[in-house]
Amino acid sequence: MFPANRSSHSFARIHRIALLALLLGAVVLCTVRNCAAQEQVPSTSQTISVDQVWPGMQGYAYTIFAGDQVEKFDLEVIGVMPNFLGPKQSIILVQLKGPKVEHTGVVAGMSGSPVYLEGKLAGALSLKLGIFTKEPIAGVTPIADVLAGGGIAGPISGSSSAGNSMQGAAVSSEFASRAGVQGGAELRSIETPLVFSGFQPSAIQKFSSQLDGFGFVAAQGGTTPARPDDAKLSPGDMAGMVLVQGDVSINSACTVTAIQADRVFLCGHPFLNLGDVQMPMARSRVLTTLSSDMASTKIVNVGGPIGTITGDHLTAVTGKLGAAPAMIPMELTTKSALGEKTIHAQIVNHPKLTPLLVALTAFNGLTQNVVYGEGTTLKLNAEIRLKGHAPVEIENTFAPGDTLNPDGMPVALSVMNVFMRLFNNQFERVQVEDVSVRVESVPGRQSYSIDSAWLEKGDATPGETLRLRVLVRPYRGAARIEETTVKVPDQVTRGTTLRVMVSDADWMNRASRGFSGGTGQGSPVGLDPLIALINRERRNDRVYVGLFAPSPTMLWDDKELPNVPLSQINAIDGRPNPGTVQILRESLASEASIPMSGPVSGIISLNLPVR
Fold first, then answer.
1. How far apart are the C-alpha atoms of 477 and 601, rounded to whole Å?
2. Which CATH superfamily includes the segment(s) 50-189?
3. Does residue 25 register a pLDDT over 70?
4. Which helix (H) or strand (E) holds 220?
5. Is 339 helix (H, G, I), strand (E, B) or coil?
6. Of the given ranges (45-54, 304-313, 557-566), which has the lowest mean pLDDT?
7. Most buried by CB count within 10 Å: which residue of 188, 198, 242, 396?
8. H or E element at residue 512
9. What is the C-alpha R_g of the chain?
């Protein structure tokens, strides 16, 4: 019996030790992972409508402060603000509670955090009150409006437009005393972090005015490799739009409010209020939360693609899990005496965003390139390939200036301008297949001004060819003479005085097509004519010589009709609204150009009598 008892006691002792080790392991695991974060997020099948919400209700919400752990924080309802977002679109005003949110306040990237009252989904955290506030007060978009933003009627009773006068009175009194509305505080959308990876702050700063106009908070982050569980989203996780990806990336980041089958509801407010869209959706992973008295924000890495953002509306951003839509491939190559370097990126295809994103990506890729240097002349050659149309060619040269603007900015703006003209055309939707940008950097400031010009003789006969000399002055260099020829048309009438114009590309464009600049009157009437117009536009690194005859030219859409009979001009000219017809009092009879190694500026006009 004794050995058996000792064995029994030994077994019990081992069992107690094993149990203690298991408990200690659980404690360690909770310490590492934060046991409070392991709570199961309630199901979104049960919801609560606004007319069931009253001041003083206790609730909670979920978000991520660090890592992949969704954490719970408490809140208290202050009241309901009827018709806040618009007619019959109320919000619920709440005060966040708990050590973390009282330390950070309402955090950029927290928008979309699911809010629960009485264990039922009430809505998405979406608004914050002012800045430098001492209490974290936020607005909640009701769940009915969140789901309606995705075109889905939520399983709720009652309407989000509900809200009684007693609740409104409670808000107006308590909210005013606690939040200081009379001091100019306002409820506005919680900022959406726009996460830049591979971008230097100096590059982002140059486009800050455009980005600020969109309501973004620029934040630097990174990218993480795609993981098998990227698409396994739960309320409180983070996801967002992919705007640029590749060697550099730009992504938005919001919190997930709810998931219905493969539908994802985010943000609780619009990203840009773009309506129905097709943009890639990616997982976002939080590194940490940066606390700031002015604007706390989440520091985010972007994960793998998980589907498509399908809607961007007033009360929610919505997406669908699955395949991501195609983007526009972009290749940027920079060449200089130091070597050559290429970066690759993909840009979202959207008429309001693509031009800006192409410019920002090109500027960053150019100026942050190890083979790039300020004080050099930049030669741009770009090609935009379109589905079903001829490619668009961009060629220009840019010399450094005396201002503090980086030399690479005109390159980026030039490409951006062409994209805007393509996307804003009134004829058909543009489908860009890919973009190739090549920039060669040549040492020094190579630019020229036209000082004077003269013909070898003061008059000419029909059909005669004359030599023309042009005095051009390089930047900080000795002037030099360039030569070309001017041919007088055979059919010109004797006794006529022609005009020889020696100028840069801009002046020649104006003289030969009026002052419309390719828009408005005299503009193309189709995408193909627009592409042809862009491709034949004059380059800024040429001295242009134009011979103008005093005979009217009619510009009809994208066509130039020289020597138009006076009867036709009288039938069109003088109408109050001549449509797309423009009359020029001169016709360009011939044109020549002199290539230069940098931008040219200036204009000289000479009279040439025909005897």
1. 15
2. Trypsin-like serine proteases (2.40.10.10)
3. no
4. strand 216-220
5. strand
6. 557-566
7. 242
8. helix 505-513
9. 33
